[in-house]
Design a protein that fits this description.
alpha/beta; about 40% helix; Rossmann fold; 6-stranded parallel sheet
């Protein structure tokens, strides 16, 4: 029986690496919840890959994901909560309402809605929820107020969900620092700890997304 993998932010970075690794096994069916597909993903067979075009910052996500009922039967489901945005990197006094709404919609609200939907409609399936967390969920980083707070929120949300639904599995996994567009954005930003992140790149201490994807999948499958 195929395994179903629902991945947010699957078009680049770690999300794209998850897809590429999973596509090596024909028993996997990946549902990408993203705003676009990359060139490699366009080549994948419909029998193993489905693109669900959703902007996680917008409303009505719960209505848009009803298509999952047509795509999933009794298979084991793995929801990989990967999508998140770190911008704006700025002091709290410089945040505006648009920044706040956008970041929290992607990093928090969308995760809650997808998790809720899966528990409502696929409670009889074997469900595994994998939150791609961050060290920022555990320590404050100046100018990262929205990112740190949203990462801490979802970590606790999954911890609570685990107490409510003990028959399902919930993971909070910190993948460490990776060589992704997010790290590039961090290095180009102005905040007190930026030199530390620049040094990670110079010193070759950034993991490859594929390496991290393999490690995480070996843990949760």
């Amino acid at each position: 029986m195929k395994k179903i993998f629902i991945i947010t932010g699957a078009n680049r970075g770690l999300g794209s690496a998850f897809v590429n690794v999973l596509m090596e096994d024909q028993n996997n069916f990946v549902i990408s919840i993203s705003r676009s597909v990359n060139e490699v993903q366009k080549t994948y067979a419909e029998s193993n890959f489905y693109f669900l075009n959703i902007d996680l910052s917008q409303n009505s996500i719960d209505k848009k994901i009803t298509i999952l009922k047509k795509l999933i039967n009794t298979e084991a489901i793995y929801f990989i909560n990967n999508a998140s945005i770190i911008k704006p990197i700025s002091k709290i006094e410089d945040l505006d309402e648009t920044n706040i709404d956008h970041t929290l919609s992607v990093n928090v609200k969308s995760t809650i809605l997808i998790t809720k939907y899966l528990l409502q409609h696929f409670n009889q399936n074997k469900l595994s929820f994998i939150n791609i967390s961050s060290g920022a969920a555990n320590r404050p980083i100046s100018h990262w107020s929205l990112y740190c707070s949203s990462k801490a929120f979802i970590k606790m949300f999954f911890n609570v969900a685990e107490t409510e639904y003990p028959k399902h599995r919930f993971f909070n996994i910190d993948p460490g620092v990776m060589d992704t567009n997010m790290q590039e954005n961090i290095r180009e930003s102005n905040f007190p700890e930026v030199s530390n992140f620049k040094n990670l790149k110079v010193d070759g201490k950034l993991k490859s997304p594929k390496e991290v994807a393999i490690e995480i999948l070996n843990t949760v499958i």
